[in-house]
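ok so I'm stuck.
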Amino acid sequence: MTITLLHLFPEDLGASGDSGNVQTVAYRLRERGFDVNVSTYASGDGLGEKPGAVFIGNGPWAAAQRAREALAPVRSTLHGWFSSGVPFFAVGAGAEILARTITLRDGHEIAGLDLFPFTVARDRDGLGAYADCDSRLGRIVAFADLSSEWRIDDTAEPLGHGVIGGKRVARDDGVILASSIATQLGGPVLALNPHIADWVAERIVEHAGGAFDATPLPTDSLAENARAVILDNMDQVFTTIAL
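replied:
not stuck anymore, here's the structure
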């Protein structure tokens, strides 16, 4: 079985090391015997055939705004894929353009592509810190770079519930909907949390009509060590540039 992973705007939206999310899923699929192609989309390109999954990452808001405008003409195609069960994995500002609406710092509201059931208020100063979240998929340890507030629909499920930074500020993260995830966690989050990467990979294979063996891989110990370092340094606060 050959699986295509589509990465949207990898050069402009990758501030959280988000290409690592694509690479992690591709690696974990290949280790389980699947052939994987990674394709990319940038403004003016064609989306191509329906992929096995769609990834988009974090970056400056100006880049996300350009991506939103470039994707507007193919919105119906993205909606069709999303509705048919193609898994989407979206991070940060890239996820925000897939929300229902985005309220900018000046109070002006613009339309998102309306895939995920949340709205965005870009009204907070940047905060960079480590995050420790519980979820039904397991514990998620990662880096959070926040410059907005996400408000998910009442019927939607947050991806995780946990704490961020040295003050252990309680907060929810993201949203999980069927086979898709939107999150504010970076690092990249899937490289740091192989069990979440395998959940994504399993959804991809299931959608393609196959079966997935989620047994751990030898490299998982590297991620375990990285998570331990993060948890030992939760008090660290990072200076960020508002995105």
